[in-house]
Fold this protein.
Amino acid sequence: MNPLEITLGILTAVGGFVDISELVFAAQAGSGYGYALIWVFAFATIGIMAMGEMSGRVAAVAKQPVFNLIRHRLGLKLGLVTLIASLVSNLITCAAEIGGAAIILHLLTGAPVMLMAVMMMAVLIGTIWILPFKWIERSYGLLGLFMLVFAVALIKIHPPWGAIAGGFVPQVPSGLSTTELIRFAYFGVAIVSAVMFPYEVYFYSSGGIEEGWGVKDLPVNRLTCIVGFALGSLLSISILSSSAQLFTPLLADPQLPGTTALEVELPMGRAGLLLALVGILFAVAGAAIETCLANAYSVAQFFGWEWGRHKKPWETPRFTLAWIALFLAGLAIVLTGVDVMKLVEFAILFSVLVLPLTYLPLLLLASDRHFMRKHRNGTLANSVGWIYFAVIVVAALAAVPLFLLTSGGQT
Amino acid sequence: MRLERGINDIVGAGVKAALILLLSFLAACSSGPRTDLPAIRGMRSAAAEWALVNREAARGRLTPAYTAGMRKAMREEIAKQARTLAPESPEAAAVAALQALPPSAAPGLIMRQAAALKRIEAALESA
């Protein structure tokens, strides 16, 4: 194992962890419920660590990405349902990320949001076209490390560390009305969905194939998932905690990513604001690339097309057309003028519905003796996997009613 | 094939359970929702965020592009939410006062309206 490669892999995972949904829901969870939802972030992070590790292991051992195995192992009908549901979920998420990046560019430059959305998409397409896979992932992941400024800002405001530590203990705040309890539950489901987005495992496992992972890479896979995702999650928890400390007394529930940047401006001034905006920009732009490529990977793997960014774009024409078309579709959604924050809410809702369809096949495949041989799930991985599967099934069942009852968390 | 059939059964049962749950919640939803609450909550927060932006802008800590973009976004959010309120509703007066303020209004003035909306919100929540 090359220590530099391991470090870069972990840093990339940290910088790429937060996306527009986590940013919005972490800030709103903090302003609405103080530190009481930190444990949900921690719980969901363990879930994505387990599922991410499984998806990477399946890619390294079976040498096949998740959607290819879904298609051949679980049959056409169920595979097609999963594919369509994932495409819808990832497309809405991709549109939300493009829109979010455009808003940040607008706040940085003053140029119109729609123009910034078009420019952003052109840059993203150019990036994927020009850079090899490893550097697509790394450039945005490493530049997303500007988000570390949120952790620095939290330290600078001297928060009540004891109360933050107490937030890691599972709890429901006392004294909430029924309406508030339902809203609290909605935020819990939304955070699980935002942290465990399905596109993350499609992208991660396909990335493993792109980089030619083998059995020797399993320790790196495990380290990246555990350390990288844990540190990334601490960034989300920093955003939540600063929001609880700074915004609650001011009656503000941050509705835009631009407001969340004030968490850094308040203790660190104008330089902090700019660093926060740049960090959000790269984190969100990186997530846009991941969602778009995840969709293109899924389609290509399902239908057995040539795919991969380790090949030249013209060597994989259908795959190349797919990711360009998906970017254009995401941009088209943004250009309709739809509220980006509404897109975030819908992205969360659709994703949580897709979670069981994504993770059930993955769990089955990771436990399969025929495919995984001695690298199949052990007792611990299986137990953790099935516990999380049960939780995401409950979350998926509750998501739509909670969304309707709370008007997307507003009531 | 057995695996596929098993999974199809699990998914089918899950979909049925979700539909039943959804229908029962929809039935619950239809009985007297406090329809103005989301709008009031959204406007209160937008007003508070607008006041914070103006406070920090007055201290010279924000960039012109950021200040203008945030003010515009918050005022548009307030206008969008205000359109969903009935014109004769008691909260409409507070919202009208908020909308009458200029983009660079003093933070204290904006916060006064945000506090008024917070009181209305609390009353609606406890109703």
Notes: The CA atoms of residues 289 and 364 of chain A lie 28 Å apart. Chain A touches chain B through 49 residues (CB under 8 Å). Chain A is about 80% helix and 0% strand.
